[in-house]
């Protein structure tokens, strides 16, 4: 069982699960790649041009090559952060989880979601990524998910689950209302029995039918 699965309540299920778009990771990789190429270029330049003038540059070259560790670990950290940053819609809430070692989780109940705003550029529509702003009645107010993959599906599933929760609540309230009316209906039937409108057998039959609905 994963970390997120351990946070789910009874009968709560993940409906859609996504991360930030791969473009976010690609831009970080490109930046670190350019930095690495620059370090190698400076190393070669120092060896070819400055070396004959200043003599052996082994310590300097080694130091420059060691600098390649920074872009390598910079991308590795970005990769781990990207992999561990997830956005989910469950049957009850929206969950945002991040952190490789120390986890940070934000969740918003679907009941408190007032509005959902989707922003997509032309490139975002072509590559299927965008920003989603979730406006809630909680203290957070607005929760912004930036450059997530499959934003349209994420928003659609969020609204579908919110509507489904509302329908379940309405059904529960209607059921509770009907249950509350059963005793009064039985009392009305009893009055009809006493007035001779219903026989004892008819009264018992209808009473049993009402009790079965509770």
How many helices does DSSP assign?
A: 6
The low-confidence parts are none
The CATH superfamily of the largest domain turns out to be: Pleckstrin-homology domain (PH domain)/Phosphotyrosine-binding domain (PTB)
- Count up the domains: 2
Count the E strands: 7
Question: What is the overall silhouette?
Answer: rod-shaped
Determine and state the CATH class of the largest domain: Mainly Beta
Characterize the largest beta sheet: strand count, sense, and whether it forms a barrel.
4 strands, antiparallel
Q: Return Rg in Å.
A: 32 Å
The name of the CATH architecture of the largest domain is Roll
Strands of the biggest beta sheet: in what spatial order? 1-2-3-4
**Helicity, as a percent range:** 55-70%
Question: How would you describe this structure to a colleague?
Answer:
The mean pLDDT is 80. A hairpin with a 5-residue loop joins strand 3 (93-98) and strand 4 (104-109). Helix content is 57%, strand content 21%. It is rod-shaped, with a radius of gyration of 32 Å. The strands form 2 sheets. The chain has a 4-stranded antiparallel beta sheet. Strands 5-6-7 form a 3-stranded antiparallel beta sheet. The longest helix is centred in the C-terminal third of the chain and has 44 residues, at 151-194. The protein is built from 6 helices and 7 strands, in the order E-H-H-H-E-E-E-E-H-E-E-H-H. The protein has 2 domains: 5-160, PH-domain like (Roll); 174-212, no CATH class.
Write the layout of secondary structure elements.
Layout: E1 14-19, H1 22-54, H2 58-66, H3 69-84, E2 86-90, E3 93-98, E4 104-109, E5 113-119, H4 122-127, E6 129-136, E7 142-149, H5 151-194, H6 200-212
Antiparallel strand pairs: 1-2, 2-3, 3-4, 5-6, 6-7
Helix pairs in contact: 1-2, 1-3, 5-6
């Amino acid at each position: 069982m994963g970390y997120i699965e351990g946070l789910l309540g009874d009968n709560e299920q993940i409906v859609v699960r996504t991360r930030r778009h791969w473009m976010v990771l690609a831009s970080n990789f490109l930046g670190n790649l350019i930095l690495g190429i620059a370090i190698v270029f400076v190393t070669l330049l120092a060896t070819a041009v400055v070396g004959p003038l200043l003599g052996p540059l082994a310590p300097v070259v080694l130091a420059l090559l060691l600098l390649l560790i920074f872009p390598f670990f910079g991308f590795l950290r970005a990769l781990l952060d990207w992999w561990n940053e997830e956005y989910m819609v469950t049957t009850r809430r929206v969950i945002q989880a991040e952190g490789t070692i120390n986890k940070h989780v934000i969740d918003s109940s679907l009941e408190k979601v007032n509005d959902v705003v989707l922003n997509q550029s032309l490139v975002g529509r072509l590559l299927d990524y965008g920003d989603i702003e979730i406006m809630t009645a909680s203290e957070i107010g607005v929760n912004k998910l930036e450059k997530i993959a499959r934003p349209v599906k994420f928003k659609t599933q969020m609204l579908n689950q919110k509507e489904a929760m509302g329908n379940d609540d309405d059904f529960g309230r209607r059921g509770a209302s009907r249950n509350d009316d059963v005793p009064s209906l039985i009392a009305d039937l009893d009055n009809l029995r006493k007035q001779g409108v219903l026989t004892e057998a008819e009264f018992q039959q209808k009473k049993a039918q009402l009790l079965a609905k509770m």
